[in-house]
Amino acid sequence: MQIHSTAIVSKKAKLADDVIVAPYAVIGDGAVIGSGTKVGNHAVVEGNTTIGSNCELFTGAVVGSRPQDLKYKGEKVYLEIGDNNIIREYCTLNPGTEEGGKTIVGSGNLIMAYSHIAHDCRVGSDCVLANGSTLAGHVTIEDQAVIGGLVAIHQFVRVGKLSIIGGCSKVVQDIPPYSTCDGHPAAVFGLNLIGLRRHKVSKSSIGKLDDSFRILFSSGLSIKHGLEKLIQEVELTTEVSYLVEFIKKTERGIARSCRK
Description:
By secondary structure, the protein is of the alpha/beta class. Helices cover 17% and strands 27% of the residues. A hairpin with a 2-residue loop joins strand 27 (179-183) and strand 28. Helix 2 runs antiparallel to helix 3 (223-233). 41% of the residues are buried. The model has no long low-confidence stretch (mean pLDDT 97).
């Protein structure tokens, strides 16, 4: 291990042999840090926090500090961070709240400066959270989603896979997978075509998704009736089936079309 002389590392923490700890970093009792991970200047790892391999915490990042929830009374809670994550300057990631509760962050994510992931969130893998992204408690971000800068997401909202949310948006309802959304509140503008192509979704399936989005967001039908029409008229490819199941499970409702 390369631990700078000014860093404070608990003897109870478990660090892989090749972890690098920069000047003035602080690592608490419950930390478990995997191989190749770098903890930057003045970064703090607190609580029952597990960080995987080859992650990098930049200056001032604080992960695992007690959740910002008035209901929290000191229960044993956890933060689990996967491999190959980049956590930039002054990000804050909180653990769960109720006894045994967890916040879970997958692998391969880029979490840019000043972003906040609150208690009991679930962030998938290969996501981008741009500067100042703010996730309230119990938010779910599915794989390969992109959250723009200064976006605020309401508690219990789900953001679907391969979706993208424009900067400064206010997100109060679930964001459909594969969508491009923006606004106050965030509304659906269409498919995330660039993301779909980058992830090599077939032209045929993109076409079926386009048909699905027209029915759901441009036909004037309610989501319920649009979903019924979609199931009757559109081939249920893997991506379309995923979209349908996502919408069926919504609890906060689905973001609607930007078109009045």
